Amino acid sequence: MSKLFISQALSAFFMFKELSAEQITSIAEHSQLIDYPKGTSVFNRGEAAVGLYILLKGQLKLGVTSPQGSEKIISIVSPGDSFGEAILFLERQFPVYAQATLDSQVLLVPKSLIFSMLDNDTMFARKMLAGLSVRMHQLVQDIEMLSLQSCTQRFIGYLLQISADATDASNITLPASKSTIASLLNLTPETLSRTMAKLQQLGLIEVNGKDVMIIDVKKLRSYDLGT
């Protein structure tokens, strides 16, 4: 894959948008494209971060496995998202694993290069802080959702969130398997299936496999708010 492709990918990433062409070229020279077939690991729990990871295509899941073997999904990573920044800066071991749920391609920007840029470019440092702040805000929202909302409200909130990024907000394809989404929302697959069936019976959504049609967005949002 050409360095031009890597440069274009870096330029599109929000943390690098303000950088000069020369800086982008320099980063591209030292960055690495890595393909991960579905089911393979990007990194395992307990490993150290070697750089900034940016998903270019495919999909990843971040999760943990209990001593009993049960899996808990922490996050689903979509193209354009970065992951692992906090551990990179803390210079600690990953508390989660990252695994490809689809054939994926990751751009790895080396740790030494990121640290050098932070030391010498205040704009880059500010953008990195902004990215971490957004991630922290999302984490707080996730904790609030899992702590305070019912299973139905969790799923509706998730549905409304992904519909906001969809080309057609009323017709959505779930970005992961139902078992993965259930784990992300701290639900059992059976509870998620019952929740979807209930919303379908109420005439709020229509489900066909992984395709979900939102029939009445206003009523769905009102249900989410408990009104």
Automatic annotation (TrEMBL):
CDD domains, per the entry: CAP_ED (cd00038)
Cyclic nucleotide-binding domain: which residues?
A: 15-135
Keyword annotations of the record: DNA-binding, Transcription, Transcription regulation
Q: State the Gene3D superfamilies in the record.
A: Jelly Rolls (2.60.120.10), Winged helix-like DNA-binding domain superfamily/Winged helix DNA-binding domain (1.10.10.10)
Keyword field contains Cytoplasm? no
Q: Which Pfam families match?
A: cNMP_binding, HTH_Crp_2
For this UniProt entry, the molecular function terms from Gene Ontology, in alphabetical order, are: DNA binding; DNA-binding transcription factor activity
Name all HTH crp-type domain ranges.
Answer: 149-218
Domain of life, per UniProt, equals Bacteria
Protein known as: Transcriptional regulator, Crp/Fnr family
Checking InterPro entries in the record gives: cNMP-bd_dom, cNMP-bd_dom_sf, Env_Response_Regulators, HTH_CRP, RmlC-like_jellyroll, WH-like_DNA-bd_sf, WH_DNA-bd_sf
A GO CC annotation given for this chain: cytosol
Endpoints of the signal sequence? none
Per the UniProt entry, what species is this protein from, by scientific name? Answer: Methylotenera mobilis (strain JLW8 / ATCC BAA-1282 / DSM 17540)
